[in-house]
Specification:
Layout lengths: L3 E4 L8 H5 L4 E2 L10 E4 L3 E7 L4 E7 L2 E2 L5 E2 L1 E3 L9 E7 L1 E10 L2 E9 L5 E8 L2 E7 L12 E2 L1 E2 L4 H6 L4 H4 L8 E7 L4
Parallel strand pairs: 2-5, 8-13
Antiparallel strand pairs: 1-3, 1-10, 4-5, 4-9, 6-7, 9-12, 10-11, 11-16, 12-13, 12-15, 13-14
């Protein structure tokens, strides 16, 4: 499952979908200086949550502790309602999946990006002050690489997840074919 993603997009671009929807994205701690980064489990990463008056961008750790002490960083969406949850949007411009065979002791690393968009949202939830990404069955672009997929939303669709202005079962879907581009990033091909 997704345990590594990236955000190499200026933070001011994240506010555009909210402006387009006639809403506001606020930065309670001030406009953060987000350098391009690859995020891993346990890292503090930017997420957007619905505040009392506006959507807010907060730095939040990735993965809460399960009762067994392991991090919960991905969370199955099927058969659940998130209407009573703290929903969040995780901005990204790519995510990674890893497959066999191993080369030099490491799995093959694949980068997925959303065709036609410079960045996208990953649907998530917050618990115990940390976030996890929601997963679903894989769409055709991800299925050859993994048996699950994170829930991805184009920039303009994120507001629907925050305020559930569309039915959850329509939001929490795998991506249709040709939504994602995939590129092998390790080992590099010549």
């Amino acid at each position: 499952m997704c345990n590594n993603y990236r955000l190499h997009v200026p933070v001011n671009q994240l506010a555009a979908p909210f402006r387009d929807a006639g809403r506001t994205l606020v930065f309670p701690g001030g406009l953060p200086n987000l350098a391009p980064a690859d995020y891993r489990i346990g890292d503090a990463a930017p997420v957007v949550v619905q505040g009392a008056d506006a959507a807010q961008l907060l730095m939040t750790p990735w993965g809460w502790k399960s009762p067994a002490g392991r991090p919960v960083f991905n969370f199955r969406s099927e058969g659940r309602s998130f209407s009573g949850s703290i929903r969040c949007l995780i901005p990204a411009d790519g995510f990674y999946e890893f497959t066999e065979p191993k080369a030099q002791g490491r799995k093959t690393k694949w980068l997925f990006t959303m065709t036609g968009y410079p960045w996208f949202w990953i649907a998530g939830v917050i618990k115990d002050g940390a976030f996890a990404m929601l997963t679903t069955e894989p769409g055709p672009d991800v299925a050859p690489y993994h048996d699950r997929q994170i829930v991805l939303l184009p920039p303009g669709a994120g507001v629907h997840w925050l305020n559930l202005s569309a039915p959850e079962d329509l939001i929490l879907q795998p991506c249709p074919a040709r939504t994602l581009a995939v590129e092998q990033v390790w080992p590099q091909t010549t």
